[in-house]
Every structure is written in C-alpha cells, then in structure tokens.
Amino acid sequence: MTDPTLSSAYLDAFRGRFVGVLRWTQLDDLWDAVLARTDVAWYVYHVGEPPPRVALGAEQLRRALTGIDEMLRRDHEEDFCGIVYADSLTEPGFVKIFDPNNLGSSCGSSGETVLPSWTLSVLPPTDLPAALPPPNNRRRWWQRLFA
C-alpha cells in the first residue's frame, strides 16, 4: 500500500523551479496572488509537524498569510525579503517559506536539500523530513571518530 504522506506530485512540485521573492512589495503581491486563486484549495504545512490532510478555507488562509507575513517582517531584520520562493509570482501553486531565525543555506548551494519551515501548496503535502531525510555524511563522520 502506498503511503499517502509521500505524494510524488507534491515532491515533484517541491523539487521544481522557484523564483525568489526579493522585495517586500513582491511578497505583498504574492499574497494577493495566492488569495486571488479561488479556483484551488490551499494547504499550509509547518514542516516537522504532521502534514495537514484538509485544505484551509478562505478566511483561514487569509489569517495564516497575515500571521506568516507579520512574523517574517518582524523577525527578518532586513530591508529585503529573500526568504520566500514561489513556483510563480503571478499564478502560484507552491510557495516555500524559510524561517528567518533558522536560515542555514536556503538557496541549497551546498548541494543538500534545505527544508523550508512552511509550505503553501495546492497539493496535499508530503511529510518532507520523512521523504527527504538529511544526508548521513555527518553522522558517519561522527561515528568514525569513536570507532
């Protein structure tokens, strides 16, 4: 039986092409574009928690975006955004949001997949930590020290 928490469509979308939201005004426009997509239901997933099985209603989505936006602007003490990525800025279907207090290398330049803290998607989410476990190279290195 296939595990419903490991949706290949969601993983394909997660691994797809994304555009960075560099300016706060672009983030405002992105939120407007998300809210304008009344043709789809949105899932808001806090990575590390169990993936939601139910999409949000319009008012719940608006509250979630307001809360995320307030947190990003408060905690990301920069005059630019740079921590939100969308598959499209005008007709989004998938958005990755990185925690300003736990950025690491969100661009993935290290070659390793860095998980966002939240995703917004029109697809039911997959349990990302289970589907994309971190590499074992550090663990193996640590174990060799004491072998």
Annotate the secondary structure layout.
Blueprint: H1 8-14, E1 19-21, H2 24-36, E2 43-46, H3 58-75, E3 84-86, E4 94-97, E5 118-121, H4 128-131, H5 137-145
Antiparallel strand pairs: 1-3, 2-5, 3-4, 4-5
Helix pairs in contact: 2-3
Structural class assignment: alpha+beta
Low-confidence stretches: 105-110
Give the tally of structural domains: 1
Average pLDDT number: 84
What does this structure look like?
The protein is an alpha+beta fold and 147 residues long. It has one domain (8-145). Helices cover 35% and strands 12% of the residues. The protein contains 5 helices and 5 strands, in the order αβαβαβββαα. It has helices at residues 8-14, 24-36, 58-75, 128-131, 137-145; strands at residues 19-21, 43-46, 84-86, 94-97, 118-121. The protein has a 5-stranded antiparallel sheet. Strand 3 (84-86) and strand 4 (94-97) form a beta hairpin. Helix 2 packs antiparallel against helix 3 (58-75). The longest helix has 18 residues, at 58-75. It is globular, with a radius of gyration of 16 Å.
Attribute tags:
147 residues; alpha+beta
What's the short version?
This protein is α+β, with helices and mostly antiparallel strands and 147 residues long. The protein is built from 5 helices and 5 strands.
